[in-house]
């Protein structure tokens, strides 16, 4: 639930709620051999798989489990204070020696302070939901941090590549949360052909076949949100996971009623009621949620106004949309942390309709890589067939 153009990367749940989580280690079948790509070389992971920085989901437990499985875990940070971010980074570091990343909002008023935490704590990767400035990219790169912005259009990829980004994560319209209209199969080759840096494909991926398809398009790996949300290492409440597992592809919709921008999520009674609500009711709800978010995050109203101005400028939003955007963190939190499927929204990629189980991160990554090798072997077999004796394959 990648990645995007997105503000759904709004920070992880606090892992100190409830009993301490067990260390993110699993007994699994033998790890498949690493599949070396430009992404694995760049960030130092075994497998070309990324777990995206999903708001209220990608906390220390999920990120460390992903990292220990040989993939790249991304810690979501936007709803944490700066001290909470530092503590979360250190918790991940206590659980794994593998590389991991932190997702940031480039337009946040305290982005500079968060970058300082990343640099001081030795985080390997900085990912961004919105394009970082040229200066921010340079500051991170000078400190040896790998910079990977998320983009939803070719022109955005070209811009950040020219500014020095090390790679880009490209989310097609199938992705969860804030999303665009162009399918991954159309957007991905556009970006691959336009930039000379590694491209990570997001939107519509869940298995080894998808990984091989992305590699065939020229990507260096895949990023997945919804698939990692639906693992046993995810801290999302069981009742919420059950709603995801019960969903069909027809139960996933795109609405603008949460924050004024296209947002892909599970269709629920709440979403239906939001779509029927009037403008004044939506704005009143946004004000209430903005006040709740300010209280929880410790942000001053002045800082929230500055962030709103940055959002308005960067996205060309109306003030009504900026105000509505206050809905997103608290409505996601209601579901992803509190388990309130009646009061919260559940961002979901279209792929959610095909997911039927809750493996551990280790089991998931092992399965994806095994499927990828099986798929590659099958394709090699197709190529080696004698066209004179083999049947036509359509």
TrEMBL record:
Q: Domain of life here?
A: Bacteria
Question: What UniProt keywords are attached to this protein's entry?
Answer: Flavoprotein, FMN, Monooxygenase, Oxidoreductase
Biased composition range(s): Basic and acidic residues: 1-17
GO molecular function, a single term: nitronate monooxygenase activity
Q: Does the keyword Flavoprotein apply?
A: yes
Which Pfam families does the UniProt entry name for this protein?
Answer: NMO
Q: Which SUPFAM superfamilies match?
A: Inosine monophosphate dehydrogenase (IMPDH)
What SMART domains would the database entry show? IMPDH
Q: Which InterPro entries match?
A: Aldolase_TIM (IPR013785), NMO (IPR004136)
Task: Outline the segment boundaries, as ranges, of region: Disordered.
Answer: 1-37
The answer on whether this UniProt entry bears the keyword Oxidoreductase reads yes
> Which PANTHER family does this entry report, sorted A to Z?
2-NITROPROPANE DIOXYGENASE, 2-NITROPROPANE DIOXYGENASE-LIKE PROTEIN
Q: What is this protein called?
A: Nitronate monooxygenase
List the source organism.
Answer: Streptomyces piniterrae
């Amino acid at each position: 639930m990648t990645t995007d153009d997105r503000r759904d990367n709004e920070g992880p749940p606090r892992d100190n709620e409830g009993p301490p989580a067990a260390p993110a280690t699993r007994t699994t079948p033998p790890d498949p051999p690493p599949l070396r790509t430009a992404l694995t070389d760049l960030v130092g992971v075994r497998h070309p798989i990324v777990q995206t920085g999903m708001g209220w989901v990608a906390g220390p437990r999920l990120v460390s489990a992903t990292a220990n499985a040989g993939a790249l875990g991304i810690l979501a940070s936007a709803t944490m204070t700066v001290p909470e971010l530092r503590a979360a980074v250190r918790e991940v570091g206590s659980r794994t020696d593998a590389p991991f990343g932190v997702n940031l909002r480039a337009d946040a008023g305290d982005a500079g302070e968060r970058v300082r935490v990343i640099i001081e704590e030795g985080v390997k990767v900085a990912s961004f939901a919105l394009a970082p400035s040229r200066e921010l990219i340079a500051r991170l790169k000078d400190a040896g941090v790998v910079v990977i912005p998320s983009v939803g259009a070719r022109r955005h990829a070209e811009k950040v590549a020219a500014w020095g980004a090390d790679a880009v994560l490209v989310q097609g319209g199938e992705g969860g949360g804030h999303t665009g209209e162009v399918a991954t199969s159309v957007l991905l080759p556009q970006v691959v052909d336009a930039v000379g840096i590694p491209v990570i494909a997001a939107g519509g991926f869940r298995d080894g076949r998808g990984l091989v398809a992305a590699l065939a398009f020229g990507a260096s790996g895949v990023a997945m949100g919804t698939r990692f949300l639906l693992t046993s290492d995810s801290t999302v409440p069981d009742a919420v996971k059950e709603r995801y597992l019960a969903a069909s592809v027809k139960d996933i919709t795109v609405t603008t009623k949460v924050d004024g921008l296209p947002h892909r999520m599970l269709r629920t009674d709440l979403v239906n009621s939001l779509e029927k609500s009037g403008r004044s009711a939506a704005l009143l709800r946004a004000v209430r949620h903005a006040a709740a978010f300010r209280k929880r995050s410790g942000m001053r109203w002045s800082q929230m106004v500055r962030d709103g101005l940055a959002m308005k400028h960067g996205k060309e939003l109306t003030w009504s949309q900026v105000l509505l955007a206050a809905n997103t963190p608290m409505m996601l939190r209601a579901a992803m942390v509190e388990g309130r499927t009646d009061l919260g929204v559940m961002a979901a990629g279209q792929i959610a309709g095909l997911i039927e189980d809750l493996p551990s991160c280790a089991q998931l990554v092992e399965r994806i890589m095994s499927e990828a090798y099986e798929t590659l072997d099958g394709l090699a077999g197709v190529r080696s067939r004698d066209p004179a004796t083999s049947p036509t394959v359509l």
